């Protein structure tokens, strides 16, 4: 049976109500991965195109959001966190190279923090990866990509840390 956005939102809500810890979020990531392996679900979410960021669902009680992202060209993001929130990146189409970082010095008083590269890996269609609070990462896309992302809260309303990369 094909996954729908309503069913995904309902199941995310059920999982997070039962366990909002990182373990419960990992279950949400696994659920998103299953949804992204459903070709009809992906086709339906991106029918007619989508901007780079579009909120598809926002839970008024728990605050989590399901978003669609569509990038037409290569794009590189700098190292960032999600402030006091978490996020799950789910690859629908294309490939995203993700780099994780270790924080050497946290950001303070509007100044960028410092991070060191830890490792890089590819997110491919059907992959979903959880970034808990404080996890610093940077995406690189070499061509067109589509993602479904779940945020613990709407990140448009959240101050997020900025970082610069140091050697070592």
TrEMBL record:
It comes from the Bacteria. InterPro entries: RmlC-like_jellyroll, RmlC_Cupin_sf. This is Cysteine dioxygenase. It comes from Ramlibacter henchirensis. The lineage of its organism: Bacteria, Pseudomonadati, Pseudomonadota, Betaproteobacteria, Burkholderiales.
């Amino acid at each position: 049976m094909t996954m729908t956005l309503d069913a995904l939102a309902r199941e995310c809500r059920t999982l997070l109500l039962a366990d909002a810890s990182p373990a419960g979020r990992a279950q949400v990531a696994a659920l998103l991965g299953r949804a992204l392996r459903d070709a009809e679900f992906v086709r339906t979410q991106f029918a007619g195109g989508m901007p780079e960021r579009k909120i598809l669902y926002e839970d008024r009680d728990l605050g989590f959001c399901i978003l669609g992202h569509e990038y037409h060209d290569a794009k590189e993001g700098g190292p960032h966190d999600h402030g006091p929130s978490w996020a799950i990146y789910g690859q629908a189409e294309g490939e995203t190279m993700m780099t994780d970082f270790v924080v050497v010095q946290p950001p303070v008083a509007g100044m960028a923090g410092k991070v060191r590269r830890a490792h890089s890996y590819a997110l491919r269609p059907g992959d979903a990866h959880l970034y808990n609070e404080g996890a610093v990462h940077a995406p690189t896309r070499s061509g067109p990509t589509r993602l479904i992302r779940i945020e613990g809260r709407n990140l448009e309303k959240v101050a997020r840390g900025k970082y610069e990369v140091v050697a070592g």
